[in-house]
Amino acid sequence: MCSRSELGPVALGAVALLTMASDAHAADRKGQVVAVVVEGPHADQVAGWLEDRIVAPDTLKEGDAFRTALRAKGAPALHAAAGNDARDAQLVARASAAARDAGVDHAILVDVRPTPRATRVHVWHIDAQKSQAVVDTDVTLPPSASAMYTTRAVLALAPPADAAPTEPARTEATAPAAPVAPAAPAVSSTPEAPPQVPDPAPVEADRAPKKPSPEVDSSLLAVRASIGAGMRHFSYVDRITASLRPYDLAAAPVAVAAGVVYPLAPTRIPVLRDFGITGEYSQAFALASQDSAGNRVGTTWQAFDFGATERIALPQGLLANVSAGYGGNDFQFTDAIPGSAAALPSVSYRFVRVGADVRYGFLSAFAAWAGGSYLDVLSSGYTSQLFPRETVGGIEAHLGASWRLAKSWELSLSGAYTRFFYSFNPVPGDASVAGGALDEQTRILAGFAYVM
Predict the structure, then answer these.
(1) For residue 110, with 0-12 CB atoms within 10 Å meaning exposed, 13-18 middle and 19 or more buried, which class applies?
(2) CB-CB neighbours of 380 under 10 Å
(3) DSSP assignment of 242-263
(4) I need a surface site. Which of 56, 119, 122, 284 has the fewest CB within 10 A?
(5) Under 8 Å CB-to-CB from 140, ≥6 apart: which residues?
(6) How far is CA 448 from CA 225, 228, 259, in A?
(7) Eight-class DSSP state of 90
(8) Cβ pair 7, 139 in contact under 8 A
(9) Is-contact 350 313, C-beta < 8 A?
(10) Is 134 helix (H, G, I), strand (E, B) or coil?
(11) The dihedral of CA 196, 198, 203, 209: what is its sign?
């Protein structure tokens, strides 16, 4: 089993880390082909410093070439495997196969995920000739850990080949407050002190800055199912025509399905890796309406939205999303009230939405978010027949909080308020006369989500 890793003066040099060689004379052993893949903050720096440790007779396999082999084998993203045992096993098996196909003897895979409380680093050492990982380990570093600090943590993990485990163990290590620079391994059994390997980059402060670095969300997709209550209040302003009926819905059960997928999240391409595609559909059920006289009328309420989003890491552990999309909101009365000429406020909104929200994670498992959108209403349905010169606008605001139950599951409680506002612009001779109207809709939902 992999032993618990402690970061300290036992950090290993390039040959011991990346080839696991135990031979005292590099010239007497066969050179190894090594690939290094790092994902997360400072990925290029960390990968570069690790690659600099590869010395003759060993050779470096270009990282992008090995990534291509990983994708060809259908290996899961590193961030997904780091938090899921099943995906971890899948990654190890497929990375080993990809290494053989690419002519790689050893692969070092590193996933770095900062949070407001800590930086999580997961390291895999894949030997192409073994079905299980030599190293498959979590390391916990201070928040805002520097690229040099992260590199030293990785260098401290790998055991020499003669101490390699027969089966992997997923362990977690906690870095001490003050790491010590990695030293090269001894090259002989004599008591002579081993040569020191210089720091892999210009001096960089290892202590965490006072302000935490942005939280990096590298999830590939999230799907959420919610259920709750929906309310509606439609009222007229300066109503002259008596048959124009206001409407109040105290509460109706509502079910919502929503999701977002980031198709390029596994890549390291800036901007594109944080580009997501969103979708949402909601439906009220067990809904019917009646007037004060008890006359009932069938009623339906549904809404949809699809679009695109971009997530942006901000200081102080905040994560922002800017989004745009196209949506619809239909509140329909399926027939007229018996014996009445009342004009019921059926609507069928179609709109273009632009908005933003911000999310803050705290206490490791909790998060809160808030945001809003402007709705550019393209059409409103039935009301446009009553008021042909109407103008309509809309806004939406939402807030919520979530609790992470496990690596990939969370519970949430959220609320959303949508407001459509009308100006009818009546002129003498119009059949329906009112100055304007407000259509206010509210949803309160409890949800269950899967995040990968």
Answers:
(1) buried
(2) 25
(3) TTB--EEEEEEEEEEEEEEE-T
(4) 56
(5) 118, 119, 120, 121, 172, 173, 174, 175
(6) 6, 12, 12
(7) H
(8) yes
(9) no
(10) coil
(11) negative
pLDDT bracket for residue 147 (50, 70, 90): confident
pLDDT at 203 > cutoff 60: no
Domain 14-174 has CATH 3.30.70: no
Q: Please check whether residue 194 is in contact with residue 160, taking contact to mean a CB–CB distance below 8 angstroms.
A: no
212 pLDDT higher than 80: no
Distance CA 52, CA 59 (A): 11
For the segment 366-385, the average pLDDT, to the nearest whole number, is 95
pLDDT band at 131 (very low <50, low <70, confident <90, very high): confident
* AA identity, residue 397: A
Please name every residue paired with 343 in a beta bridge, in sequence order, or none if there are none.
Answer: 244
Of 58, 5, 1, whose CA–CA distance to 27 is shortest?
58
Which ranges in the chain are annotated with CATH 3.40.50?
A: 14-174
Greatest mean pLDDT among 72-86, 98-112, 417-431? 417-431
How many residues in total does the chain contain? 452
Q: Which of 115, 89, 99 is nearest to 219 (CA)?
A: 115
- What is d(CA 329, CA 306) in angstroms, rounded to the nearest whole number? 12
Q: How would you list the strands of the sheet with 135-141, edge to edge?
A: 59-61, 33-39, 106-114, 119-127, 135-141, 171-174
CATH 2.40.128.90 residue spans of the chain: 221-451
**Beta carbons within 8 Å of 254's beta carbon, 6+ residues apart:** 227, 228, 229, 230, 282, 283, 284, 285, 301, 443, 445
Residue 172 has pLDDT above 50, yes or no: no
CA 55 vs. chain centroid, Å, equals: 37
| Phi/psi of residue 296, nearest 5 degrees | -100, 150
Q: How confident is the model at residue 338 (pLDDT cuts 50, 70, 90)?
A: low
Please state the CATH superfamily assignment of the domain spanning residues 221-451 in this structure: OMPT-like (2.40.128.90)
